[in-house]
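Internal QA ticket QA-208
Title: Verify multi-chain structure generation after dependency bump
Assignee: T.L.

Test input:
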Amino acid sequence: MTLRTQNIGYWYTNNPDDYLFKDVNLNFEKGKVYSILGQSGSGKTTFLSLLAGLDSPKAGEIFLNDKDITKSGLTNYRKNAVSTIFQAYNLMTYMTARQNVQTALEISNKSIDNAKIEELFELVGIPKELIDKPVLQLSGGQQQRVAIVRALATEHDIIIADEPTGNLDEETTQDIVNIFKEIAHQQNKTVIIVTHETAVANETDVTFELKKKRFTQI
Ligand SMILES: Nc1ncnc2c1ncn2[C@@H]1O[C@H](COP(=O)(O)OP(=O)(O)OP(=O)(O)O)[C@@H](O)[C@H]1O
Ligand SMILES: [Mg+2]
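Actual output:
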């Protein structure tokens, strides 16, 4: 499994000179955690949204196993290949943790048994008694873990997360980083996280920094 960008560029105006980044050629392989580091406003979320198939680059293509992801359709790509964890979790707060996971599975036309779901909650450190509580009653760090379980349950090859440790304390940040490492290294998935924290980036296998509109591996 390789996800590869080929000369991709993006700009929000009609003028290509206003690009946030261009001619970006990056490779993401399975079994590794990648981080994308950059200042606020540099274009990290924009770049992730292209990898997540939520938007298309203004220039260039993205290939999954040498197939242009737009060829089989971005909806298909999102349904079968990639799971996204957003900056603001995007959980359905009136639902329980378990219902959030089940809803994501239904959207992907998948089903896994309850025992497996409970195993995933255990993996991320959500105690059993919280699984059937409305997520509104969970802390920020716990909600982030629920969002991770939701991304894992669909068993997609690529997990993309935007500032997954944004509002968390040091210990919880370390826990979450460890979960991502375990997912990549043990389950052989591709994990791509955006962060502005150098300490988080330092723990990942590969870091690409978006600086002065260019990506460089650091
Ligand atoms: N929908 C949009 N329309 C126009 N401009 C946008 C839009 N979304 C983002 N931008 C601009 O594009 C630039 C990059 O935004 P983006 O959200 O990708 O940055 P970021 O690196 O994720 O920042 P942060 O670290 O603050 O989340 C910013 O200048 C932002 O104002
Ligand atoms: Mg952002």
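Spot checks passed. The mean pLDDT is 93.
Status: verified.
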